[in-house]
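User: Please fill in residues for this 138-position structure.
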């Protein structure tokens, strides 16, 4: 679910369309958008406080085989919520799990890891090592 939640909607739609067979599903809860309260803690472990609200879209689907998939995604991306919920339901079925892993999850995870490595390399290029700098007042 973390891979699906962190994927851009257009990337998830592309990966979802690569499934060889479009799964048959019904909505238990059609995609709907609402707000959730984001809470924080002072110092990470202190008193909780309300940080603000975030827009979330949720969806619940049931496959023809009875598996139920749930998804909560940040933003107003109803299609992303449907695709994530269907992938969650397919993941729960032993026969379709390898298919979802190979055609949806693994390509998305590989892309996310490559992007994280690129960002880390870009950030590392700007790192300053203060222990090797000379003060000049010796």
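Assistant: Residues filled in for all 138 positions:
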């Amino acid at each position: 679910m973390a891979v699906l939640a962190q994927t851009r909607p257009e990337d998830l739609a592309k990966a979802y369309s690569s499934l060889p067979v479009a799964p048959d599903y019904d909505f238990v809860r059609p995609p709907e958008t609402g707000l959730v309260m984001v809470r924080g803690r002072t110092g990470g472990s202190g008193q909780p406080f309300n940080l603000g609200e975030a827009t979330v879209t949720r969806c619940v689907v049931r496959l023809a085989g009875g598996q139920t998939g749930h998804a909560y995604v940040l933003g107003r991306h109803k299609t992303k919520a449907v695709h994530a919920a269907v992938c969650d339901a397919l993941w729960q079925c032993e026969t379709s799990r390898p298919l979802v892993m190979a055609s949806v999850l693994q390509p998305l995870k590989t892309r996310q890891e490559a992007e994280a490595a690129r960002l880390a390399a870009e950030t590392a290029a700007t790192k300053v090592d203060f222990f090797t700098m000379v003060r000049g007042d010796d």
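For context: Residues 2-111 form one domain.
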